[in-house]
Design goal:
Strand content of chain B: over 45%
Strand content of chain A: 25-35%
Number of strands of chain A: 8
Number of domains of chain A: 1
Oligomer: heterodimer
Largest sheet of chain B: 8 strands, antiparallel, barrel
Order of helices and strands of chain A: HHEEEEHEEEHEH
CATH architecture of chain A: 2-Layer Sandwich
Number of domains of chain B: 1
Radius of gyration of chain A: 27 Å
Distance between the termini of chain B: 33 Å
Number of helices of chain A: 5
Radius of gyration of chain B: 23 Å
CATH architecture of chain B: Beta Barrel
Helix content of chain A: 25-40%
Structural class of chain B: alpha+beta
Largest sheet of chain A: 8 strands, mixed
Helix content of chain B: 10-25%
Strand order of the largest sheet of chain B: 1-2-3-4-5-6-7-8
Number of helices of chain B: 3
CATH topology of chain A: Double Stranded RNA Binding Domain
CATH class of chain B: Mainly Beta
Structural class of chain A: alpha/beta
Distance between the termini of chain A: 89 Å
CATH class of chain A: Alpha Beta
Number of strands of chain B: 8
């Protein structure tokens, strides 16, 4: 009986350690779709945003799928998105012009949808490496783990949106179209048109330097 | 997962308690007669007329401690996750070298979490608007020594202890749903103190109330060394 008690403890303590180590708070379970999204903006520190007065915006949205151009689209949601960006730029004092009127800034809008195929291989590479549960743990010292070789396949999706401000005013100086500002929007439901108003407002609110000198 | 953990720990706790208790028996009935008491002591070679001489709680030298802990992060860990954590456990299995000193292995688990409402973070020319979720799990595994000045004496027994060993630190800082994570195993040290309160004179169970400080030199992003103080309650079980 003494042995039973001692071995019960020997089993219980590592079991408790294993259980405890595998259980932390899962932060993702505590996030709404809105909270899951992040909005990242970058700017060229040398750009003088007050020097730009006019802008033009693309007439459709570029769609990139799996890192390849899939085409242009203009759904009602896309049109709403372009309109929201235009309105924000106008509020900052920039004047919308046609692209053939030599705008100072051009705005590109892109959706990116990448699907990654991931493969998990059985048996796991780590099954018989030091540190993993030795078969002796189960009372079979000297044995090895085995599972018929096979593969499991799963897919992950990554959707995000980018908005780029292109410096057209100074394009002729170095034969390059420099982006002076860009925004990347990522997270759950980021390409849902219902979320566009709050998303566009967020990227402009966090960029107060976007202001025309008029 | 938390439910599974709770059920598992409860089952584990009950199993250990039942295993320990099922094998415990009172070595002698509760005699009130002084002669009978003397006879018992003589049988055990302890003719000192000490009524507690036969109250050793268990006849193996192993002591299992199981505690639930509430911990408060300190220092830069407090900056990272300032909320008191109610998700903490520690356990130790100690060998009673003599009535005053026990040594063995201690483990623990502490989980810290803080969710920060959406705000804009500035990093050079980059601005990021995000809801941040900070999580950190600390899992110390430490050879532990415990000193009980009163030894086998009856009544409340104060103790001090020290654990020195390793700690697995699992850091996960979420920006929205995107995680910046780091996992490191490094040094950790935990001084502790508390009291054991026996349930009865002969029971192998003692109630524990203690405090424990843990330090681990983990540095990543805003955290420069982990320190926390824990208040714990639980059981100390003398195994048979």
């Amino acid at each position: 009986m003494k042995k039973l008690s001692f071995f019960a403890v020997l089993f219980a303590v590592p079991s408790a350690l294993f259980l405890l180590s595998s259980c932390g708070k899962n932060a993702l379970n505590n996030l709404s779709n809105e909270e899951s999204r992040i909005y990242i903006t970058n700017r060229d520190s040398t750009a003088n945003f007050k020097s730009y007065k006019t802008f033009s915006i693309v007439d459709s949205v570029a769609v990139i799928q799996n890192n390849q151009m899939a085409g242009m689209e203009l759904t009602s949601g896309d049109a709403q998105l372009l309109q929201l960006i235009t309105a924000q730029m106008a509020q900052r004092g920039y004047v919308l012009v046609n692209k053939d009127q030599n705008p100072d800034l051009g705005i590109n809008v892109t959706y990116i949808a990448n699907t990654y195929t991931n493969v998990v291989q059985y048996p796991y590479d780590w099954w018989n490496t030091p540190g993993y549960f030795d078969p002796g743990y189960w009372g079979y010292g000297g044995y090895g783990y085995y599972f018929p070789p096979t593969f499991g396949i799963y897919q992950t999706n990554e959707n995000y949106m980018t908005v780029d401000l292109i410096d057209l005013k100074n394009a002729s100086q170095d034969q390059k179209l420099n982006a002076v500002w860009n925004a990347t929007l990522k997270g759950e439901q980021v390409l849902n048109p219902g979320n566009y108003p709050s998303e566009v407002k967020a990227i402009f609110d966090q960029s107060p330097y976007l202001q025309s000198g008029k | 997962m938390r439910t599974i953990l709770s059920i598992s720990l409860t089952a584990l706790f009950v199993t250990v308690c039942v295993a320990a208790n099922a094998q415990w028996y009172s070595p002698y009935p509760n005699y009130n007669n002084g002669y009978q008491r003397l006879q018992q002591n003589m049988e055990r070679g302890q003719n000192n007329n000490n009524q507690y001489a036969y109250t050793r709680n268990g006849n193996s030298n192993f002591v299992l401690n199981l505690n639930y802990g509430i911990s408060q992060p300190l220092g830069t860990l407090k900056n990272y996750a300032d909320k008191m954590s109610f998700t903490g456990w520690n356990a130790s299995l100690l060998y009673q070298i003599n009535p005053k000193i026990a040594a063995g292995l201690g483990i623990g688990f502490y989980d810290y979490y803080q969710k920060i409402p959406r705000q804009v973070y500035h990093q050079g020319n980059t601005d990021i608007s995000a809801v941040q979720s900070h999580t950190l799990q600390l899992i110390p595994v430490q050879p532990t020594i415990m000193f009980t000045p009163k030894g086998d004496e009856p009544g409340i027994q104060p103790y001090v202890g020290l654990g020195i060993g390793a700690a697995d630190v699992n850091y996960q800082e979420y920006w929205g749903e995107f995680v910046d994570k780091q996992n490191k195993i490094g040094f950790s040290v935990s001084p502790m103190a508390g009291i054991h309160i026996p349930f009865t004179k002969t029971s192998p169970f003692k109630f524990n109330v203690g405090v424990k400080y843990t330090y681990a030199p983990f540095s990543y992003n805003e955290i420069h060394n982990i320190s926390m103080v824990e208040a714990n309650v639980g059981l100390s079980i003398h195994l048979r």
